[in-house]
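Give me the fold.
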Amino acid sequence: MLCDALGMPIKFIVTAGQESDMLQAIPLLTNQSASYVIADKGYDADAIINHIKSISAEPVIPPKSNRIVQRFYDKYLYKDRNLIERFFNKLKQFRKIATRFEKIKTNFEGLVYLACSFLWLI
């Protein structure tokens, strides 16, 4: 899921439950513009960092503890990462989304689009 600075949804990709979310970071950021990209340390990969820099944005991603060279990140801006967490909380208020009621991917995507549209309207 990709959200704007107000915590509103912009773009999402539905994947299999066992697939890593990190693999969808670059496709989500393709054709997007931003000043900063805020993500948790699960997205601390050189490919993602380089892609963020290639779109002229600053990555605000804390480095993993096993990185040899620890990168700097803005800890003050990182506090805004809770916007995506709060968005998922709002999204999970829709019971059929929280329980993954629809098992077919296209049907589930349709529900997420509908819920996101509703959240944009309220």
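Residues 2-121 form a domain with the Nucleotidyltransferase; domain 5 fold (CATH 3.30.420).
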